[in-house]
Amino acid sequence: MSHDKIQAKLVYMANQIATFFKSQPAEEAAPGVATHINKFWEPRMRRQLFEIIDQGGEGLSPLVLEAAPLIHRPSEAAKSA
């Protein structure tokens, strides 16, 4: 799968998570998105999500961007492991 298709799939998945958490109280929505991604996305997926965010977050829901500071950014050491 091409890099662009992988990124599009991650944007789609992150936005699906955000859509679910939009129905939660506002103060729980962003932490809920972050908790879900931290719990269920492997470091490689989170690293690719941060690539998208660092490039401006094109296509990502505002709620995903709000949750970004709460999502665990994988270290560079994990990248080479």
Considering the chains and any ligands shown, give keywords for the structure.
5 helices; 70% helix; 0% strand
Q: Any overview of this molecule?
A:
This protein is mainly alpha-helical and 81 residues long. The protein has one domain (3-80). It is 70% helix and 0% strand. It contains five helices and no strands. Helix 1 crosses helix 2 (26-40). The longest helix is centred in the first third of the chain and has 19 residues, at 3-21. The protein is globular, with a radius of gyration of 12 Å. The model has no long low-confidence stretch (mean pLDDT 93).
What overall geometry do the principal axes of the alpha carbons give? globular
Number of structural domains: 1
Low-confidence region ranges = none
Percent in strands: under 5%
Q: How does the major sheet shape up? A: none
CA radius of gyration is 12 Å
Question: Helix fraction?
Answer: over 70%
Number of helices: 5
**Average pLDDT over all residues:** 93
Number of strands: 0
Ends: how far apart?
A: 22 Å
Order of H and E elements = HHHHH
- Helix/strand-derived category reads mainly alpha
